[in-house]
Amino acid sequence: MKTTFKLIIVFLLASFVFQSCQDQDDVAAPVSLEVNDFIWKGLNLYYLWQADVPNLSDNKFANQTELNTFLNGYSKPENLFESLLYKPESLYPATEAVDRFSWIVDDYLELEGQLQGTTNNNGVEFGLSRKSTGSSEIFGWVRYIIPGSDASTKSIKRGDIFYGVNGTQLTINNYQALLFGSNNDYTLNMADINGGAFTPNGKSVALTKTVLDENPILINKVIVSGSHKIGYLMYNGFYSNYDSQLNDAFGTLKSQGITDLVLDLRYNGGGSIQTATRLASMITGGFTGKVFAKEQWNAKIESYFNANDPESLKNLFVDKMGTTPINSLNMTKIYILTSAATASASELVINGLKPYINVVQIGDVTVGKNVGSVTLYDSPTFGKENRNPNHRYAMQPLVLKIVNSVGYGDYQSGLVPTFQLKETLSTLDVLGSTSEPLLNLAVGKITGTAKTKQTVPGVQFDYFKDSKSTNGIQNQMYLDKAPEGLLKALE
Is residue 134 located within the same domain as residue 239? Predict the structure, then answer.
């Protein structure tokens, strides 16, 4: 039976990828086009908006020769990739762009590291904002310092402001090269702000990038306030190689008998869907086997799974990670802190929990990334096995939209907080301190001591970019691998 099922899948997949070449003349793509060939065929099969891109149509090319002619028109794989995206952010204004998050790399080793929190990094995690509305000049502000990094040994901390690199003012045109270029060493030029005016203060901080693994669990503590024992977890990335540590952190909170939980995702740009599912299961604990989230793929993949294996597209609450029991807190209410940088898997947790428990969101409107990706390699199955040894290109295209158990997933404009409270430059208090405004509001809501209306003084600033969203990670929500039927069948 299994053999028959596999043969059916093989046939269907072959039809998907090569339907455009049904009159195939058995001409393979030459070596010079093998990267481009991989890009087209991977997107033709998996891309979420494949049906909306004319050059990805199954009927666009009669055979491989015609496809080769098309591919030969692009000298750089990156240019071909971008041309095959549906209304990419790079070519369309923000109000019209659809695909804001698909990307391609020329070294899958770097990509794999980034998706697990490994980056070439000096340890300064920061936000970027325009100096004023419409200004091309921008400034940076330190969100936190990664422990064990070069920055952790330097005189720089949360709330510090920088305006330049190596004496050059940061602008929307040069920040990529200055902060994220090949320069492993640079000096940040610092500034003070008074009444909205930025003044260089003559201070500078020399920093060096190293290969850095960031543990996403930055803070895990218990705050006692009256009869409440409030667990506070600041979690900065859904990196699956830290799932055991995440489970241990919940075990610590559980052992201390917490009555309430505050989950701080304000600087969490996302990551693994599996990790998000496990985190939600740690928070709740009473919904094992029920649907946390459902995946919606392009029409041809969706039709196959709906007919043959619809359960593969469901992400269920779990009580184990492999054979390890999950430390669940059985919360019926949770307080989640967000910002304009909170994205993808973080938003998935919020949206996926809402049908089951009371989710109180505090902070700012989130990014609005309700779509996910998967890593595609140049191999017969688009998986890791038998990768083409001639290059290291890989793609991270959007392949799915994700919805919760009641079918809601239309939050592309962001998730609006229950209580809106933006961070300000003058109120960037110590993270984890009960005087820090967002955490203070959460504790106040838990204990019933919060003011009806929060007014936090300080200079407001509009979020532009941050160190994670511009450092290759790109607000990702990704599958650790494609659904079993698609890749395993071709092994």
Answer: no
